[in-house]
Amino acid sequence: MSEPFWKTAISRVEPNKIIVRGYNLMDLVGKYNYADLTYLLWRGELPPANHSRMMDALLTVCLEHSLNAPSVDATRFVASSGVPLQSAVSAGIAAIGEWHGGAIEQAAKLFQDGVSSATQNKLSLKDTAAQLLQEYTDRHDKVPGYGHPTHTRDPRTQKLLEIAEQSKISGKHVELALALEAMTEKFFHRHLILNVDGCIAALISEMGFDWRIGKGFFIVSRTPGLVAHAFEQMYYDKPYKAPHWKEIVYTGVAERNAPERKENAA
Amino acid sequence: MSEPFWKTAISRVEPNKIIVRGYNLMDLVGKYNYADLTYLLWRGELPPANHSRMMDALLTVCLEHSLNAPSVDATRFVASSGVPLQSAVSAGIAAIGEWHGGAIEQAAKLFQDGVSSATQNKLSLKDTAAQLLQEYTDRHDKVPGYGHPTHTRDPRTQKLLEIAEQSKISGKHVELALALEAMTEKFFHRHLILNVDGCIAALISEMGFDWRIGKGFFIVSRTPGLVAHAFEQMYYDKPYKAPHWKEIVYTGVAERNAPERKENAA
Amino acid sequence: MSEPFWKTAISRVEPNKIIVRGYNLMDLVGKYNYADLTYLLWRGELPPANHSRMMDALLTVCLEHSLNAPSVDATRFVASSGVPLQSAVSAGIAAIGEWHGGAIEQAAKLFQDGVSSATQNKLSLKDTAAQLLQEYTDRHDKVPGYGHPTHTRDPRTQKLLEIAEQSKISGKHVELALALEAMTEKFFHRHLILNVDGCIAALISEMGFDWRIGKGFFIVSRTPGLVAHAFEQMYYDKPYKAPHWKEIVYTGVAERNAPERKENAA
Amino acid sequence: MSEPFWKTAISRVEPNKIIVRGYNLMDLVGKYNYADLTYLLWRGELPPANHSRMMDALLTVCLEHSLNAPSVDATRFVASSGVPLQSAVSAGIAAIGEWHGGAIEQAAKLFQDGVSSATQNKLSLKDTAAQLLQEYTDRHDKVPGYGHPTHTRDPRTQKLLEIAEQSKISGKHVELALALEAMTEKFFHRHLILNVDGCIAALISEMGFDWRIGKGFFIVSRTPGLVAHAFEQMYYDKPYKAPHWKEIVYTGVAERNAPERKENAA
């Protein structure tokens, strides 16, 4: 028998009823908050109390980062073009790529694989960390979740670790993340801080999330800010945002005359 | 003096510090939740307690509506094509258009203009409602925020009004919205329910939001669901979602032979 | 009987055969070029010879405009974030809004309505132009398709009119467009040039296109350039394009301390 | 000295002049067609005559594939939501992913690496093909550019190879592509046809294109079709396209009551 074309395990809608992961959504609204229901959507179950608190912190800590984020800049250029709000937000979301929030997934995979491998090989997390960093340096590769272009101590990492401690969310993934940070100087000749992506990665790994949903945290976290920036651009800034032609440096070939059509290539 | 190219009133980032609407974001995380901080981003101020509760309900009540929503379908088709998570979510956001969440803005404008006009013209809200519906019927136009293709009584409207009452959020915009609903049968020969878009529109008007940010509520509300659907499609469904060619009805011209290049048009 | 869910008059695919607007696509490839087949897709018929030449010019004249176009800037910011090529191009397309290519549709509507109204009211095109400009000045509105921030004489307009003349594509829409240009100085106290959007609008109106497909010309024209910019950004520029925090001017409220949760709003 | 923030080698705009890759764009329009100028944008040089003809065929052969393509479906769902034309097209472009056009890049890399390796290792292309297929079968991986869900003989491949022969575009990449096709039966126990993605990949490799611009061909080729589908959906089909709730199969957990807030997780 063939698979149905339209199917989902997430929710069911029928007249006057919306079921999400088995629950009537209206029984949850007002009792569980936005972070709880996001957890439900992604995990299939409502969060225990400590996960609830952590979840909310994970979704708010990346709320805004001003215009020094490609997603915000993309949103503002699109918003300046005379489009509806959602188009500008959509373009910003499209920019949550491997270098912009994407390290959450890569670092979560690193930590989850690292903890598995430590357990399997009966290695300490410290030795595992050293081994992993050796692999990265050998490949001349960057370690996802470490270092930041603006912050020398990522305030978001500090805050998340503080709430994690209060919420009793700790364990091997966080330990490994910190062990890696402590050894970066040895392997890369400068201290690379555990940045917010890396910290989110460690905490969602601790909470049992699949690493492949990592970017979802950044997407949800950044969306209200993208809405705010789209709105500000549309109603409080000039239309058609673009640099003046004099500010654009042309690095291409010098001016030349249009040629006659060329012969076939060899 | 010329305007700076990069400017914003929303936030300021400097090394190790992120200021949002004047507050250090790290002083707010863990103390104010996602809905509160979204309110701050959009309004410039933190919400009073009753607005906080209402805000969270407004952002969760549209969380999910299964595959019978074009945004979710767009997300799933894009997700099936071999793209990163954010691309699929981005396409879903792009579908939050005039017929899909957009009625929030249109209805909020209707209610805000209606209340203003009632005050200015010293008309009752009931008379204002009658006058507005007369205008819509004369123009053969739909009233934004009323009627639903699936629900005969929108469960989300009921829930929001219940929480609004508990939170003491009421006033002329909600009154006008309900007055309009009560009279739809008289003007359109069938009862048109106040749907979730219309109800959100009335409540955000009551709370003092600019009607032009209306779609933002739907966008933020729907984003975690779009992430869940993208994830489900990518990892629990088949790639390259598309109907089989036999299911597609061709309604175009019959097959014909390729012509010779035509002469100039007259 | 209910409408089929999947239907289209554009094309039909069956095993080993692709029919477009009635023709076997493989009978056309190599014989008709990209501009011809775009014409076929949008109009349902292959172009006569002069429309073919004009169509190609219409699709190439807006090919590139460097970084002083919000679509290109959006593409480059997204491309810098670590995403696949199509994501960056997609964001650029999303920026083809009312202030960026959108004037083609608005101007084509203006010209088509203007010519209709002139015919109906037995007015000369010159008198019609004067009447239309009077309406725009009364409404304090901009006339779509006129004026340009960089060019004082849009070279693309000159080129298109030259090819239109060679191709014998002329008539009332072009006449009206030029009559409007000639009178802008009288109504707006400075000469507003017929820009490329306005010129495309006049020519596609002359060729019989529906004004609502106007942005399609700009979208197709700009796509190869967006691909080129995405590629250049991804492989020949730095990742994570964003202004330095010192370059971003914060215009918001001064720093302040996080407050206690407020009481209910009145 | 620091790099300029806004720079490009593609084009330069100044008042009344648009330079593309060194040429005044207005000297090229009307003389070189859309395919030629796309070639110029991507390669930096105008095409020789045979490349010109091939380029046009490469950009037209994938023009349309009806609704059995996720990009077209995404476009139609978004177009049905009440959005401007470009938003729907943008969503379709976002769906040009690894399983939908993306094989062009992967196959072009395969052929370019394969030819290099054959030369370096002094292996015949046939032996190289056998070696490559062995690697794919060992990894239980699909070979990009081979096989098709609808076509048993991809008509687009036939057409492209025919034009390539007429245009004298042939060589080791095409040879390797055909050698691989010929051996698929031996390695995969069924004949896998060289599909249009694989054929484009072989030909652009022959013409000297960087494999990383492969998806650009599919994007440009599909854009006019996405415009046509967006237009048809917006003006000739019903708004708010979505399956009826009865058609959606819910595969999730059974209905259950909303629980009390859970205790902390262990």
Explain how this protein is built.
The structure is a homotetramer of 266-residue chains. Chain A has 266 residues and is mostly helical. Chain A contains eleven helices and five strands, in the order E-E-E-E-H-H-H-H-H-H-H-H-H-H-H-E. The first copy, chain A, has helices spanning 25-28, 34-43, 49-60, 70-79, 85-94, 103-120, 125-138, 155-166, 172-188, 196-206, 214-236, and strands at 7-8, 11-14, 17-20, 23-24, 249-250. A three-stranded antiparallel β-sheet of chain A has the order 2-3-4. In chain A, a hairpin with a 2-residue loop joins strand 2 (11-14) and strand 3. In chain A, helix 5 crosses helix 11 (214-236) and helix 6 (103-120) crosses helix 7. The longest helix of chain A has 23 residues, at 214-236. Chain A is globular and about 70 Å long. Chain A starts with 6 loop residues before the first strand and ends in a 16-residue tail after the last strand. The mean pLDDT of chain A is 96. Chains in contact: A-B, A-C, A-D, B-C, B-D, C-D. Chains C and D meet through strand 1, strand 2, strand 3, helix 1 and helix 2 of C and strand 1, strand 2, strand 3, helix 1 and helix 2 of D.
